[in-house]
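Fill in residues.
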């Protein structure tokens, strides 16, 4: 773990950093270069709105912002400038949030089913799903791993909560298609988008979780071979030997493909722990050792390994003193899913401290809200 001390002349920069940390999760487009007097991407619209700690939510009622989103999702997507590719991630996290609420006993099954059906409907809208002519679900599926994986998670959660087979045929069609995609891959990682050669282990962890969930719901074994192949590949060919951490991308299509990234590792751990808990525990410990940073009471995860600096991008969000906001935002959820209360409290406290020290207005985003609500309501769900 790294300990950093800031000088007085850096206080103004630290204040801006606190604004960024308070966002918990920022997905920024059109990032700027970082320097000593500027926080890269600090004007991003993907951030959380500050609230008075005295009015902290008890999380016994569905968050009002989620209900507003359900009424007009496209309007909120546009207002928050959320890229189409990321919209399904919003929806899968909201589905997990509804699942958490149901398992925590705060809403009845029928109400949870109603919300999840709404999420399925939004997922199938033209504003979210890939562009398929004449209804993609009726035609041969393409290789849109990112969308199909997260949509499959939503369908799996619907089944877990409702017990209904309403979406079983679509769930099976997607799961079978994803299994075939894995079988055809020499890297054991499928592509995230149909027209892209990029293969991200983080996206694949989510896809594998969706298959794991399908098998759990329907007592099947579609996930077994893809999981075994993925875990074997990542251990032998997909891990950076210096850091003992996953490559960020396995097709070697970029110069930094063989480097681990904070946003990718936090994202991976959120999903991998469900189907490979032993391997994920080892990955989590190495990740904390190499990437977890504490700075004057502020905790966060680096975006890049120590000594390596790169510009922020749409995946990382703003990067401040090496700390990535997406890495730290998903890190909050990862810590909760890993039952690492120490790291979870440090990351959560960093966000709360920032609210006390800054006056800048923080813009509310449904993307960051979905991640935060998922993290704060998650408990180990009963079998």
């Amino acid at each position: 773990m790294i300990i950093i001390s800031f000088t007085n002349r850096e206080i103004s920069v630290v204040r801006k950093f606190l604004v960024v940390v308070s966002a918990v999760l920022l997905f920024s487009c059109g990032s700027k270069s970082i320097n000593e007097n500027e926080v890269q991407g600090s004007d991003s619209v993907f951030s959380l709105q500050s609230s008075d700690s005295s009015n902290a939510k008890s999380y016994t009622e569905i968050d009002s912002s989620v209900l507003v989103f359900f009424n007009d999702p496209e309007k909120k997507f546009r207002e928050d400038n959320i890229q189409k590719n990321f919209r399904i991630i919003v929806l899968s996290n909201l589905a997990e949030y509804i699942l958490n609420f149901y398992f925590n006993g705060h809403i009845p099954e029928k109400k949870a089913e109603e919300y999840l059906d709404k999420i399925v409907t939004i997922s199938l809208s033209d504003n979210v799903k890939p562009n398929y002519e004449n209804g993609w679900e009726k035609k041969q599926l393409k290789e849109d791993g990112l969308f199909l994986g997260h949509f499959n998670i939503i369908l799996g959660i619907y089944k877990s909560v409702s017990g209904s087979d309403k979406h079983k045929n679509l769930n099976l069609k997607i799961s079978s298609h994803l299994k075939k995609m894995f079988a055809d891959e020499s890297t054991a990682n499928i592509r995230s988008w149909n027209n892209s050669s990029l293969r991200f282990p983080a996206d694949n962890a989510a896809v594998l979780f969706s298959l794991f969930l399908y098998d759990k719901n329907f007592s099947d074994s579609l996930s077994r071979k893809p999981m075994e192949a993925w875990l074997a590949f990542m251990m032998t060919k997909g891990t950076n030997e210096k850091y003992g951490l996953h490559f960020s991308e396995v097709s070697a299509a970029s110069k930094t493909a063989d480097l681990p990234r904070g946003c990718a590792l936090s994202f991976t751990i959120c999903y991998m722990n469900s189907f490979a808990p032993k391997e994920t525990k080892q990955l989590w410990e190495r990740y904390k050792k190499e990437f977890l940073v504490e700075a004057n009471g502020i905790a966060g995860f680096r975006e890049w390994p120590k000594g390596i600096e790169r510009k922020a991008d749409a995946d990382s969000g703003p990067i401040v003193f090496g700390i990535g906001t997406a890495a730290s935002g998903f890190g909050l959820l990862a810590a909760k899913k890993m039952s690492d209360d120490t790291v979870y409290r440090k990351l959560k406290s960093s966000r709360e401290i920032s609210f006390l020290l800054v006056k800048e207005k923080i813009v509310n985003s449904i993307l960051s809200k979905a991640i935060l609500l998922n993290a704060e309501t998650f408990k180990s769900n009963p079998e």
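The CA atoms of residues 28 and 65 lie 21 Å apart.
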